[in-house]
Design a protein that fits this description.
Helix content is 73%, strand content 0%. It is mainly alpha-helical and 95 residues long. Helix 2 runs parallel beside helix 5. The N and C termini lie far apart (45 Å).
Length: 95
């Protein structure tokens, strides 16, 4: 199923929208619990830092494509990194 390009480009999603929460729940966890920075997200995704800050701290918007990019470039790879780190820690501690 192809997403209508017009819909994909429009800045439709705010931080507290239901679809955004499901897309970025782990990103919020990374930022809050692991002190992952928006600057790192900006570097990896090439989304302007000011746009990410407005989205995260205020009431800015991100497009569907930007949400997808964050999920594919940041969330999915780093989710695995944190899982591996937790596993390695448990193995070293004998848990």
């Amino acid at each position: 199923m192809e997403l209508n390009e017009d819909i994909a480009q429009k800045p439709l999603f705010k931080k507290n929208d239901e679809i955004t929460l499901s897309f970025l729940e782990l990103l919020y966890h990374f930022i809050d619990d692991y002190k992952f920075s928006l600057e790192t997200v900006s570097i990896l995704t090439k989304i302007e830092l000011t746009k990410l800050e407005k989205f995260y701290y205020e009431s800015g918007n991100l497009s569907y494509n930007e949400l997808s990019l964050i999920k594919k470039v940041v969330i999915l790879p780093f989710e695995k990194v944190f899982e591996i780190s937790k596993f390695n820690y448990k193995m070293l501690k004998g848990e």
